[in-house]
Please model this.
Amino acid sequence: MKDAAAPKDAAPAPGAALLLLAPTKWRPWEYALWLLIAATPFVFAQHGALINEIAILALFALSLDLILGYAGIVSLGHAAYFGVGAYGAALFAKHVMPDPLVGLAVGTALGAVLGLLTSPMIVRGTDLTRLMVTMGIALVLYELANQFGEFTGGADGLQGVVLGPLLGRFEFDLAGRVASFYSLAVLFVAFVLMRRIVHSPLGLSMQALRDNRLRLQALGMSVNARLTTVYTVGSALAGSAGALLSQTTGFASLDVLDFHRSADVMTTLIIGGAGWLWGGLIGAVAFKVLHDLISSVTTQYWTFWIGLFLVLLMLVGRERLFRPWTWVRRSAG
Model:
């Protein structure tokens, strides 16, 4: 009588393979949203500068979401990598080559190098240790940029940054229209890259690490190596966001390394939601629109109203605040 057991090299069930591949597939609403995003520079051409700022903040929030939302590394000094990318791209454009894409690559590489060099201090320790270390790195770089004013411009900032035309054809205009297309294109490429990373084996292992570090160690996986890899990638994306800011504004100052820069991106991620790729984009739109509207009414106390909104968001909950109909339906059911 033949053995009825399945052979050892039997293929996995088709249902399991489809279940694993399901999150990697683009959904119709994602295509629709990206088409709407691509249309914003045409529809709101008079707000090109604001669209550019939103795209840069969204890219910055994506970089923080990778290390915080997916890897569980808390940071209050993410502006360090943003600032290094901003200064690197500005100095490169001013003294070496004005090509925007090459400068963007330089800013991204500098952010990645700084992330790789500082990762040994960050991947170890508790959340409180990481908060202090990341904040300390940003403060050290801030003071260095202030002291070496002959290179960075010090408190006056690095001025006279002039870029060449994008792709050799499109000159950057004062209205920010070309800049908005440029930043949105970089944001889309980064989003696609992030999507591939978080749904890859590395991304899945990072989420498992975030949920239970000891269990991942028990499986024999290298925790520090994974944290270092993800932190370096997140730092590179932050560097590219900083490079975009200095390129599209033609200016780099100590503001790119200031603590409020780290606080703003953290606030953006809190509004949109961490551990969800669209959270950074939604949070960036909400934060910048709220900032623009509130500051037009009161230029001095706009942070008060943003803080009040955050308190309301934490007390009520994101789902109850933005989707009250689902909460009412669940409560009634």
